[in-house]
Amino acid sequence: RSSYSCCYFVLPCCFFDFHGKYSRRQSKKTQYREYLDFVAQVGFVCGFHVEEDCLRIPSTKRVSFIGKSRTYPAAEHALIDRQITQFINSRPTCAVATCDRRVGFNHEDHCGGLCKKAGSEHPEDETETTGTTWMPGFQPREKVEQVRNCASLPRDFVDEVVLNVANLLLNAAPQKSCSDRQGGNVNTWNQGESLSLREVAEHLDKETLKKLKSEYGGLQTLLKNNHQVFEVLNGRVHIRDWRKEKPPSKTKPEVKRRLSAEAFKTRLCWFFIHHPDGCSLPSEACPYAHGTEELR
User: Fold this and answer.
1) Annotated domain spans of the chain
2) I want to staple 222 with a disulfide (CB 3.0 to 4.6 A). Which of 150, 166, 259, 279 is the partner?
3) Which parts of the sequence are C3H1-type zinc fingers (predicted)?
4) Is residue 273 a contact partner of residue 294, using CB atoms and an 8 Å limit?
5) How many CB atoms sit inside 10 A of residue 258's CB?
6) Who contacts 258 (Cβ-Cβ below 8 Å, separation ≥6)?
7) Distance, CA of 292 to CA of 269 (rounded, Å)
8) pTM, to two decimals
9) pLDDT digits over 81-105, tens only?
10) pLDDT by residue (tens digit) across 63-83?
11) Long-range contacts of the stretch 251-260 (C-beta < 8 A, 24+)
12) Could you tell me the end-to-end alpha-carbon distance of the chain, in angstroms, rounded to an integer?
């Protein structure tokens, strides 16, 4: 409805209608095929020659639709816009059920008479025309979406919270002994204690918690974002022990194995810098840089 010269490409994925989740109207097709037919129908009602294509992408949802040309002359744009308005308003009701119940699907007959009905019955009753609101209550997104996943928080603030939580875990219990998987020797690298998210939050000041509450996920999201340092399982926070991480798969292609063996280290190791016992892994085995000289 943007303009007569508008073209479109759409890759249908999640099953949504104009007013909410798409409701199935038959069981003779798969849910995916029925939804694809509905999306194609929308394109046809909007006056497009709808073309279907299958993309060469690694996804189960790879059927796309392209609208490159119109089925009507530019002079009829206002009339088609009234038909579109009626089609949108008919979706919450069962008015279009007769279209969707058909077993087959023909691109030449998507609207199943709905377009004729829209064009012939009381067009003067339609209050919406070209240039006005597309549908009642429609609210588009803001042009600039606010990122609220803790990624926009100041780096200094995040580093301070990470250090505070790590020290809390390290000091929560007496130092434990643990065995080194690589050499089988017993050492005293401090793994710290595990605490619930609630217990961790109780040790943070109110100002910090206020900042975190303004972000989706809050404290848990921030800790999960710092995958290098923490592991969050079933609502409990642990210091990550990199010796227990699963080794990389041996099924990688030879070229990828060679690249990974060169260890492109782009971030410093938090444990090498901040942990009282240093990193639990030797430099050659750690995926992070032990010093700036290893950074690439």
Assistant:
1) 8-90, 155-171+192-294
2) 150
3) 263-293
4) no
5) 10
6) none
7) 10
8) 0.49
9) 999 988 888 876 443 333 443 334 4
10) 999 999 999 999 999 999 999
11) none
12) 50
Residue 39: enclosing H or E segment and its boundaries?
A: helix 31-45
Q: Are the beta carbons of 18 and 135 closer than 8 angstroms?
A: yes
Which residue in this structure is represented by tokens 């377009």? Answer: 115
Q: How far apart are CA 179 and CA 196, in angstroms?
A: 25
Cα three-residue angle 286-287-292, rounded to 5 degrees: 85
Cβ within 8 Å of residue 239, ≥6 positions away: 166, 169, 170, 191, 192, 229, 230, 231
Instruction: Please give the average per-residue pLDDT across 235-244, as a whole number.
Output: 91
Cα gap 6→105, rounded to integer Å? 25
Gap between the Cα atoms of 86 and 122, Å rounded = 11
d(CA 168, CA 195): 9
Torsion sign (Cα): 248, 253, 256, 257: positive
> What whole-number distance in Å separates Cα of residue 51 and Cα of residue 215?
42
Structure tokens at 286: 């750690």
Tokens of 222: 């921030």
Phi, psi of 209 (to 5 degrees): -65, -35
One-letter amino acid for residue 119 of the chain? G
Give the integer Cα–Cα distance in Å for 11 and 60: 11
| Orientation angle between helical segments 218-225 and 206-213, nearest 10 degrees | 90
